[in-house]
């Protein structure tokens, strides 16, 4: 049985996003024993979904596993899945579509790892139950997206002194509100987690437009900022686990 894999990412013009996806696809191909592993985008820039699937179907494969590479369920994932499903009637290749990366213990582990790395890199030796954490996500109108964020927050809460979350856009609490809540808790160290898959425009610029003035106003004692999710072997394993769920089930 010859299998291919296609990641559907949201899309970004930042070169770092493509660079990360290329490395991720290479690792998935090797670890998952796929004939090929590639990516396409839902929006912003090509290759879009139609081009990604059509290109995948030029390969000599029996099955194509499509992975909506998103942290949250929501309208964008539904759009990606619906568009992908429409291709099944046009091909004899079996199309399988996985769950997104949400509501999985790996995401809790990844956030914990980002916090641990930030503390270590900045030589902070406090016990974790003395550390405060603020997780910044994108924001969505879909209530399932918020539940996905709360799943991660609930997973790390037992480890730290205080854990809260806020959003870059669309919903509240916004970044300023999130920082001011942390200020009221009077943290000795606050670790700000960038809960984003890629080093796109949001991570490189947009967050800082709200975060920097909020931090200046709050005048907190010590603030550390983590790296985004990016390329991580745990994420590679999660993607492959998602593929196995549908490949075995069907």
Describe the overall structure.
It comes from Marine Group I thaumarchaeote. One of its GO terms (molecular function) is lyase activity. This is Sirohydrochlorin cobaltochelatase. Keywords: Lyase, Metal-binding. This protein is an alpha/beta fold. The protein folds into two domains: 3-100 and 231-249, Rossmann fold, CATH 3.40.50; 105-225, Rossmann fold, CATH 3.40.50. It is built from eight helices and eight strands; from the N terminus they run βαβαβαβαβαβαβαβα. It has a four-stranded parallel β-sheet, sandwiched between helices. Helix 1 (15-32) crosses helix 8 (233-249), helix 4 (105-121) crosses helix 5 and helix 6 crosses helix 7. The chain is elongated. The relative contact order is 0.16.
Task: State the main characteristics.
Rossmann fold; alpha/beta; four-stranded parallel sheet; Sirohydrochlorin cobaltochelatase; 8 strands; single chain; Sirohydro_Cobaltochel/CbiX; 250 residues; 2 domains
Largest sheet: 4 strands, parallel
Mean pLDDT: 95
Could you name the ranges where pLDDT drops below 50 across 5 or more consecutive residues?
none
Q: Quaternary status of these chains?
A: single chain
> What is the CATH C-level name of the largest domain?
Alpha Beta
Radius of gyration: 19 Å
Query: Order of helices and strands, N to C?
Result: EHEHEHEHEHEHEHEH
Q: Pairing-aware structural class of the strands and helices?
A: alpha/beta
Mind telling me which CATH architecture of the largest domain this is? 3-Layer(aba) Sandwich
Give the end-to-end Cα distance, rounded to a whole number of Å: 13 Å
The figure for the number of domains is 2
Count the strands? 8
Instruction: Give the CA-based shape.
Output: elongated
Share of residues in helices: 40-55%
Strand order of the largest sheet: 2-1-3-4
CATH topology of the largest domain: Rossmann fold
């Amino acid at each position: 049985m010859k299998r291919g894999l296609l990641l559907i990412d949201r899309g970004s013009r930042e070169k770092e996003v493509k660079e990360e996806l290329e490395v991720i696809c290479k690792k998935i191909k090797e670890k998952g024993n796929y004939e090929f592993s590639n990516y396409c985008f839902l929006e912003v820039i090509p290759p879009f979904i139609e081009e990604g699937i059509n290109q995948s179907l030029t390969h000599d494969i029996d099955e194509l596993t499509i992975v909506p590479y998103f942290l949250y369920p929501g309208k964008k994932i539904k759009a990606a899945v619906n568009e992908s499903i429409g291709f099944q009637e046009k091909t004899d290749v079996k199309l399988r579509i996985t769950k997104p990366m949400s509501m999985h213990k790996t995401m809790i582990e990844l956030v914990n790892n980002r916090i641990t790395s930030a503390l270590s890199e900045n030589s902070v030796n406090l016990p974790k139950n003395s550390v405060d954490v603020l997780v910044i996500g994108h924001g969505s109108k879909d209530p399932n997206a918020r539940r996905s964020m709360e799943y991660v927050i609930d997973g790390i809460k037992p480890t730290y002194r205080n854990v809260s979350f806020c959003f870059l856009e669309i919903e509240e609490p916004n970044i300023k509100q999130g920082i001011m809540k942390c200020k009221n808790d009077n943290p000795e160290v606050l670790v700000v987690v960038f809960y984003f898959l890629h080093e796109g425009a949001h991570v490189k610029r947009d967050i800082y437009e709200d975060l920097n003035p909020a931090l200046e106003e709050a005048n907190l004692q010590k603030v550390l900022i983590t790296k985004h999710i990016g390329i991580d072997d745990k994420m590679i394993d999660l993607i492959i686990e998602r593929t196995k769920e549908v490949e075995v089930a069907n």
